[in-house]
Structure formats: C-alpha cells, structure tokens
Amino acid sequence: MIGYDLGVLGVISFEKRDLEAYAARSLGDLLQEKSPVFVRQYGAGMLASPSFRGTSAGHTAVFWNGLPINSISLGQSDLSILPIQAIDQAEVHFGSSGALFGNEAIGGSVHLGTKAQFGGGFKGQLSQTFGSFGLSNSSISAGFSGKSFSTQTKIYRQFAQNDFPFRDLSRPGTPEIRAENAQTEQVGWVQDLVWNLSEKSQLKASFWWNWANRQIQPVMGSATQDQQQDESWRAVLDYFRFGKGSVWNVKAGWISDQLTFNGSENRTRQFLLATDWDIQKNENWTFKVGARGTFAKGDLSTFSATDQRIELYQSAKWEVSERLSFSANFRQLAYQNQLEPFLPGVGMDFLIWEKENHQLLLKASAGKGFKVPTLNDRFWNPGGNPDLLPEKSVNGEFGLQWLKKGDFAWEQSLTYYRMQVDNWIIWLPQGAIWSPQNIREVQNQGIEYQGKMTWKTGLWNWEARGSYTFSQALDLTSDTQIPRQLHYTPKHQANGSLETERNGFSMNLYTFYIGPRAIGTGNARVLEGYQLWNAGLSFSQLHLKKLQIPISFQVLNLLNRDYQVLYLRAMPGRSYQLNLTLLL
Prior knowledge:
The chain is mainly beta. 4% of the residues lie in helices and 61% in strands. 36% of the residues are buried.
C-alpha cells in the first residue's frame, strides 16, 4: 500500500486500539491529538485542514486504498468528514515524498485503508456513542471471511447539535452564549469484497459513500445561516498477481464529489487507472516500476473544465549490507500537454551501533516535490489564472533513531528537516477581483522528536508517548526585511500520553499543546497558545454469553480550557462521551 521506505524517520502507523479510541471522532481529531500535524479547525465538526511542517493543506496528499482522494477543485481534503469508523488502518508520512506519491505530497501524506481477513467466519459489531452537546454516533458492521473469500460492510451515522457554551469576544463584557447554526450530521457506507482467485492472484473491490450535512458555524459577532452538504462516492478495484519474488497490481478507481453551499452546486469526477510491479531481484535489490493515468472533470458554479495527467515512476532499494541501505525514487509527470522535469528522491539507512538490546540508526533523505494548480486556481470565474506554474519544493532531512528492547523498552527519534517551496500560489486582490499568483517563496525548517516507552509494574502494563515539533516557516517574499512566520503556523507543538492496562481495564491521559500563531500575514496580531487534556477509562472484558461488550468513557478538554484554533472561531469546553459496543 505504501511503497519503499525513503529513509524518512517521520512515519506514524496508528495501531488498532488508536483507531478504536477515536471511532466516534474524525481523522482531524486523531492527527491533532496523536501526531505532530497541526490541524486548522474552523469549529467543532467544521472544516479541518492539515498542516505538515508549516505547509498548507494543499501540500498534503491523502489516499484511501491507494486512491488519491483530495478534491481536484480545492486540492485538499476536509479531515472532519473523514470518519475513523470508515477505515481499518491509517499511516502518516512526514516530509516531501513527491517522487514516491506524486502530486501534493510536499509537506506529507496520509494513507487510509480497509483491511481484509481470511478464515475468521462471521463477525458483527454494533456501537453507540452518546456525548455532550447532542452527540449521538451509531455504527454497525458485519463481515464474513472464509479461506478464499472475505466481505465486510460498515454503516455509520454521526450527529451533533453542537450547542456548546462559549464566551463571545465580539460583545462588550464577553458574555457566555451558546453556539448556533453549528449542527452536523454524517451518514456513510463502506463495502469491501476480496477474492483469492488462486494461490497466485487476488481481486479486491472497495466502495465508500459518505454524505455530510453541516450548518456552518459563524464567527463570533456574525449571525450567518450558511449550510453545506458534501457527498462523496469512491470506488477502487485492485487485481494482484503474485509471482516468485514479485507482485503485479492493476488498479482502477473512480471518485465523484458534490459540494453544495447555500444551494450552489459544485461537482467533480475523477477516474484513475494505474499499474505497478514490485520485484525482489535478490536479497540485496528490490525494484518498483509503475504508471498512473488520471482524468478529471469539474462542473462548478462558475466554470467547467477537464484535467488529464500521466505519471511514470520507479523505485529501487539496495541493501549494501546488514548495516547500510540506499533507496532512489523517480517520477515523471505530464499534464495538460505539459511535461514537467522528473522528480528524484534518495534515501539512506545506516545502523551506527548495535549492542545486545540497543540499536542506533542514522537515516537521511533528500528529494523534490510538486503541486499542480487546482481547477479553481486555473479556471475560477472571475479571477482564475490558467498560466500558473506548479509549486515546486526541494527538501532534505536527517535524523537518529534509538531503539531499546526489553522489560523497559523505548523508541526515540530526532529529525532535522529543511525545505524550500517556490512558486507558492496565493490569492491576491487585483482591483475588485481576487486572483492567484505564483509570487511566494517559503522556507521551512525545524526539529521533530518522537518517543515511546513501554514497561510493566506487577500486573499493570504501561505505555508513555511524547512528541515535540519546532517549525519555522518563513515567507521570503515578505515586504519587511526580516522574513515572517506564516500565519496560523505554530512554531511550537507537542503532545503526550500515558496509558495503563490490566486484565482488559485501561486508563489513559492525553495532552497536546499548540503554540502562539500569527493571525495575519504581517504578524501584528498573535493568537495565544493553548494546552488541552483528555482522559478516559475503558473495559473490554465484559461478556454476556457469546457477546463481548467493550465499554469506554472519555472526558475531552478535561480542564474546560477556553481556546481558539483560529481567530473568533469558538471551540467547545469540557465534554463527555460514553461508548457501548456489542461484538459477536
């Protein structure tokens, strides 16, 4: 699903229990609280966009079962309408990997997927979550897996009134009022079918329908009554052929998105056909070669347009010895009759030291990335600019990873990265009309730390995690002599957790910190930083005959902190969630 390791330290694979803990929440909540990604939230259940290493939401590639699902008109994904209940696995890659994953993967990439199992018979699950401010989330899943066939069906509904109290900073005396016009509802269906046609071939089909209806929470001081509906249909068909030391894959994918804002409809459709071949030449060499063609069409409120892209890519990994390996990746893009220079990416892994249960590794990578202007950038009427150039980046990083096994085990990594993005697209006023221009150059550099420790005291199993990110994202085209930090980009960000478990009973405490952010491009006004705490209890060993009944309780924003992610966008205070699940 993912491809070769580029030697990048910044890879997070979320475990099954992580996804289960966030089953009634969104991908945006998971990334904000359990990764170094900053998520720009426009309110509870409102638009949530990721920012990797100081880049914009349009610099993050999002995939579902290998299918790129970013909007072709906006160039990004809204994480608030990507519910955790719809997926079985999630992985996050930090750093530019355009040579490996293609368009938009300048800051990072998110890989979501469903997972097939065989030989498990029938399994069913019914889950219900109740919470503060009118929260009611329901889901049901059922599946059957035999020796050569597997099917799984998921149906979910998420609803929140979002009538939480907050202090209205726009009114004299900042009185406490309740949020209005902030109701959200989501309904979805996920279907997976997998056939092992023979010992050497497999056919997999996945389908995902998601519908969201949201009242758009107004900023403080406004009484707007905006409403938005999002409907997405996604389908992907994979054929795998397994040979001796090789895997051949053919993928066909289709996406249809419709966004309706206050009655104005915007439709986009995308079709993808791709193939790749993984080859294990010998013990030291592995290769991957592939091609991908994409056709897209947009019928939006102000324009209609099409887009065609062809991509060729190849990867190679050389295991020089047990201690040293190199990798190289190349991608060639052609779009709208334009041929872009190929994108290279190289990486290295070196085992510096190994003794008993300790390992110290050095990892490094460098490469280029790109982002094609979106349909809105090129064709929005009025203001679109069809002459825009692709955004391009050059990046490098290196870091150390220290692993220790044993009764008291840990994994720790420290990474330094540096990146420069040229031709950064920004919309600026041209008289009375706003239009996008390639005028911004941005330089990003920073340090990322990630750590995990596990140990045992008596019958209790413990796990502690922590991460810290320092991110300097400077606008080199600033009018001042001193480059300014990009607005709404925190220099400092951290999160941590402590969990303990015994015989199915577990307790956890989570915290995350977001540093101050500039509100505007001039950095004249700054939004103060905030730290939130969440706590939870769960018990998974409750049984009623053949039924297993996991139950969990969570308190979000434990200390009832008053905070804003974006200026004048109200966020909820302390809230509670109770989840009851029936497993068969």
